[in-house]
Design brief:
With 290 residues, the chain is of the alpha/beta class. The protein contains 14 helices and four strands. Strand 2, helix 11 and strand 3 form a beta-alpha-beta unit. Helix 1 runs parallel beside helix 4 and helix 4 crosses helix 7.
């Protein structure tokens, strides 16, 4: 509630707690709080959504890049909350602001975060399900990128196709191509995965598409969180926390994949064999000469 009050005072250019607070710093606090399931309910009940809408409608001279990024992040996280999602979808000016941010090439991270929020809110429509599933997709957070790249190389060297992300970095392409067309989704469990809106959107979409889901423990800090548990209940966790154990662990992962996501062997083209030249009958030639 203090963050909400501080944000309201900052929006109205009033001091709070004896000082003036920067809008982007208060928005950052709000985005951090919005990652917790318990806090989501409290924030929604105490009027966070109208305040977020006000933040995105501020004039350009009061709306810094950091402010926009933190505000869009908070929106994305609150979109996982039922009442929060309903309120956000009802804020038409907020939705319009997100759409504008999503195509603003002058910002760095904000457009992708805005696209992620719009995806989770259902504003960006889901594509029809594909009939062909062509790759393995590793759902992970940036902190474990190097570890995931190591695992991806092992998997690729054994004849599988791995999705390496959108070349343009387009957020909804990550969902439509990366998740919707994957044969198997590997969820890389780490401490920060449970706080990532993108990872959560990917997992929920994979569940919606009825994708096979494998759990990979890629550090020693990962733990289950309440929102994740219903989607992975009774699923075995494969241990990849220590890279020196990869030689022992990779075969189990490949066995779990089976032929899903495996490169199709292309049959060599059939070569046409030229017919032999007809050989003249020597006896016939002798008869013709006589």
């Amino acid at each position: 509630q203090k963050v909400m009050m501080a944000l309201d005072h900052a929006l109205n250019r009033k001091p709070f707690g004896g000082q003036y607070n920067s809008l982007w710093k208060v928005a950052m606090g709000l985005s951090q709080l919005s990652k917790s399931e318990t806090n989501k309910d409290i924030l929604v009940e105490n009027g966070a959504v109208p305040l977020l809408a006000r933040l995105l409608q501020l004039p350009a001279d009061r709306r810094s890049t950091l402010l926009v990024e933190h505000t869009c992040t908070a929106v994305w996280h609150l979109a996982f909350n039922g009442p929060g999602k309903a309120q956000l979808c009802g804020e038409t000016l907020l939705i319009d602001a997100l759409k504008d941010i999503a195509v603003d090439e002058g910002m760095s991270e904000a457009p992708q975060i805005a696209r992620g929020a719009l995806w989770q809110l259902g504003v960006i429509p889901r594509p029809p399900f594909f009939d062909t599933f062509v790759h393995i997709y590793f759902c992970h957070v940036p902190e474990c990128k190097e570890r995931v790249e190591e695992l991806a190389k092992h998997v690729e060297s054994n004849g599988y196709v791995v999705w390496n992300g959108s070349s343009s970095g387009n957020m909804d392409e990550e969902f439509t191509q990366g998740v919707c067309r994957c044969a198997v989704l590997c969820v890389c469990l780490t401490e920060n995965l449970y706080l990532s809106a993108k990872a959560r959107s990917e997992l929920l979409y994979a569940f919606e598409c009825n994708k096979p889901i494998l759990l990979l423990q890629v550090d020693n800090e990962g733990r289950e969180e309440c929102w994740l548990e219903p989607y992975v209940r009774n699923k075995k966790v494969l241990d990849f926390a220590d890279s020196y154990q990869d030689k022992l662990s990779i075969p189990g992962l490949l066995q779990a994949f089976g032929r899903q996501g495996r490169k199709e062997k292309v049959a060599p083209p059939k070569q046409s064999v030229p017919l032999p030249e007809p050989v003249a009958d020597p006896k016939a030639e002798e008869g013709a000469g006589g």
